Amino acid sequence: MRLLMGMLLGLVAGCSQAALVPLFDSQFLDPAKPDARALSRCQAESQGYPPYPGQLRMGSKYDQGQVSKDVLDKKAARQYQAQVEAIYGYLAFLGQITEYMRKPDPAIRAAAKACFSTTLERWAEAESLTQREASKQGEAVRKWFLSALATNMMKAQALTDWQASDRQRDWLALLADRVQAYATPRRQRMDLYNNHDYWSSWAVMAAALVLDDPARLSWAEQGYWLAIGQITPRKGGVVLPLEAARGKRAEEYHAFAITPLILMAEAGTRNGLALYDGDGQQLHALAAQVVHFWAGDGKGVAFAQRQESIDDHKMAWWPVYAHRFPERLPLPAGDADRFGSRFTGGSLGGLWEAPP
Asked: In the chain, N or C: fewer CB atoms in 10 Å?
């Protein structure tokens, strides 16, 4: 029934041409001329991030001989890092630019806006990361890239009056096409459906919000409900079974997996989808469980194996959730900016004008 409703939503929205609501509120300052020095410095630095020319043939950094795949293969990890260094470096740079859009000086924001466009245009012209052939890990890199790219675009839209060029929109759409083409068949294998699929759904939803594309929003919503259906009660709390099977990284993978779910729930809610309602209420229990994992307070579900600690960047979802539900899981005082991932364009705190 939910899948049917999602498809109907896409058809209705497509007919009405109602604009989709982005993840963040518009809050840009008055227009100003770009600060010439800041713009020159940023554009010069952007030359250090040429379009990625390589193949999407990355391999996993984990020992594939382990069923849980929770042990790093040091040689494979070094090779993987070398393969993705240019891609992740570019994403980090985009995140830095959008952080400058938070500055109170309108001239600095204007410089960041201009530099952001220049930095995107070169990669868009090259249609970077859109090749059809990709390894399994290469597909993962592509969806994370799409997530970061579209989220940074929404930040730029909210913090300045930036708008994507036609070439940038075409590039974003092609990336989303590739992600959907790989992710759609996986929805027939729920024994494999895991955090990778959650991220694919969010990446496409984020692209939908930038492109104002209700059909992609509907596709992503279907993926969201499939993920919600995997939240399973366990003594003390709830788990995602496939993430719970990740050995000493089970808690860490829960934090990573919930991020796209919270972002979809928030974006969907802003677009009239009741993603926190019905079965979606289970997301609250999962969020509380992940905070317990992060805090290491021993509450909730306990895994038999000693767990790796959860880095703050895996908690990028928390400022988003705490904004909508401040009474449920309030952030540690003054700590919103510490929670941010390269896959979310940095911190997502402070991007709304007032509580909904």
From this structure: N
pTM of full prediction above 0.85: yes
Give me the residues of the chain with pLDDT under 70, please: 1-18, 63, 66-69, 354-356
The dihedral through the CA atoms of 170, 164, 98, 118 has a sign that is: positive
Q: With contact defined as beta carbons under 8 Å apart, do 314 and 270 qualify?
A: no
pLDDT digits (tens, 9 = 90+) for 194-203: 999 999 999 9
The closest alpha carbon to 356, from 255, 258, 268, belongs to 268
Instruction: Characterize 8-39 residue by residue with b for buried, 16 or more Cβ atoms within 10 angstroms of its Cβ, and e for exposed.
Output: ebbeebeeeeeebebbbeeebbeeeebbeebb
pLDDT in tens, 318-327: 999 999 999 9
Amino acid letter at 71?
Answer: V
- DSSP labels for 123-155? HHHTTTT--S-B-HHHHHHHHHHHHHHHHHHHH
CB 342 within 8 A of CB 99: no
The encoded tokens of residue 287 equal 């969020």
Q: Where are the alpha helices (DSSP H) in the chain?
A: 2-16, 36-46, 74-100, 106-125, 136-159, 166-186, 195-211, 214-228, 241-244, 250-270, 282-295, 318-324
Please answer whether residues 31 and 243 qualify as being in contact, where contact means their C-beta atoms are separated by less than 8 angstroms: no
Q: Which residues contact 299 (CB under 8 A, 6 or more apart)?
A: 236, 292
Please name which of 103, 91, 92 lies closest in space to residue 350, comparing C-alpha atoms.
103
- DSSP-derived secondary structure letter, 195: H
